[in-house]
Write a structure and sequence with these properties.
12 strands, Beta-Lactamase, Heat Shock Protein 90, elongated, about 50% helix, alpha+beta, 3 domains, 5-stranded mixed beta sheet, 5-stranded antiparallel beta sheet
């Protein structure tokens, strides 16, 4: 009996710590167990759910899905069924993979049912990123080849006939061709970088120093914007790719500059902080611009999503991939009283070992930001 009790407690511990939602029910569809992930994903309480009919605990749309799956299982005489659905949880639409199975004893008598569901958000994001990378690669390949001859031809026309043709329209058109080919080349380079980001080269460095080196250039170029820093002097040295972090910071600062442009008291702040307990180095970039439009809040890190009139929409997608290459975590929050705040966290130990233990890192990131609503 004691061994059975220990085994039961062990199963409880396992179910409490897996990232999969699990709900079990008896033969009469009364709930017998709800693990912590199920509580989190469905917004229900285990203590208030056990012993109650599933119909009174689960939201109607979710219970209807359960009923539909149960009906199909009985119709086709199968013991398990899987389905991918989208369920509204709070203010978010979550893609879930549901698996409903019957539970039997050794004599094949039905004991109840177990409903298992996985959040597919990370999987779908990874699939989308891979698809967009392939699109970017093909676009870059198709556009890049004709750009050079187009520009050379326009420059030749400018040199050969520029002094002979007095019509201003000729000069304007040729200049426009050259200018537009340069813009297209910049776009193609962004596509190429996104499709084939360079291999991360880690070396131990000082993040504060890297940030200050970048800020010097932006303070000089944007003297009408107050750009200041609040850097934690206790930040330890840790391994990162200096060039990639500079590009990451440049993307975030470019966005911030664009956001505060025209503001009467334009401000951008970059800060760092070290959490010795979690072994996390945080870098925060905040602006006091208008913020991110409501309709884009959950999509800002997706490729080709942009608020700029002539933006490629690849800047934040590249930032996100760079952070992930460093086993880091990035989120965007509304700043107070106005603006946007990007919070990036680098796990120091993981950065030093370069191991992709992302599940544990993501869990810490979620705990660290608990109770704060992010855009992503």
């Amino acid at each position: 009996l004691e061994q059975l009790d220990r085994h039961s407690k062990y199963i409880e511990v396992v179910l409490a710590n897996v990232n999969t939602g699990v709900i079990s029910m008896n033969r009469h569809n009364s709930i017998t167990m709800v693990n912590s992930q199920a509580e989190k994903l469905l917004g229900i309480s285990s203590s208030e759910s056990i012993g109650k009919p599933a119909k009174t605990v689960l939201k109607k749309e979710f219970y209807d899905l359960f009923g539909e799956m149960l009906k199909m299982m009985k119709l086709h005489k199968v013991t398990s069924q899987q389905k991918e659905v989208k369920v509204k949880v709070g203010n978010r639409i979550l893609p879930l993979q549901l698996t409903l199975s019957f539970l039997y004893d050794d004599n094949r008598n039905e004991l109840g049912k177990v409903l298992v569901f996985n959040d597919l958000t990370m999987v779908l994001n990874a699939q989308r990123a891979a698809a967009w990378a392939e699109v970017a690669r093909r676009i870059a390949h198709e556009i890049k080849n004709p750009l050079t001859p187009i520009k050379l031809a326009a420059q030749r026309l400018q040199r050969k006939f520029g002094t002979q043709i007095t019509d201003e329209a000729f000069g304007e058109c040729v200049s426009m061709i050259i200018h537009q080919t340069d813009d297209l080349k910049t776009l193609v380079n962004e596509f190429s970088y996104f499709a084939r980001m360079p291999k991360t080269s880690f070396s131990k460095g000082n993040l504060n120093k890297t940030i200050e080196e970048s800020l010097i250039l932006y303070r000089e170029a944007h003297k009408n914007i107050q750009i200041y820093s609040d850097l934690d002097s206790s930040l330890p040295l840790f391994s990162f790719d200096t060039e990639q972090i500079k590009r990451l910071l440049s993307n975030l600062l470019d966005n911030a500059v664009a956001a505060v442009k025209g503001q009467p008291h334009a401000e951008i702040k970059v800060s760092t902080k070290y959490d010795p307990l979690l072994k996390l180095v945080s870098m925060v970039v905040t602006d006091n611009g208008p913020g991110i439009p409501e309709e884009l809040k959950n999509r800002i890190f997706e490729p080709y999503v942009t608020t700029k009139e002539h933006g490629t929409g690849l800047g934040l997608a590249i930032v996100k991939r760079t952070v992930e290459e460093h086993n880091g975590y990035i989120r965007a929050f509304p700043a107070k009283p106005a603006g946007t705040q990007f919070v990036i966290e680098f796990p120091v130990i993981l950065s030093d070992t370069h191991k992709g233990l992302k599940s544990e890192k993501n869990k810490k990131g979620d705990d660290h930001h608990q109770g704060r609503e992010s855009f992503s």
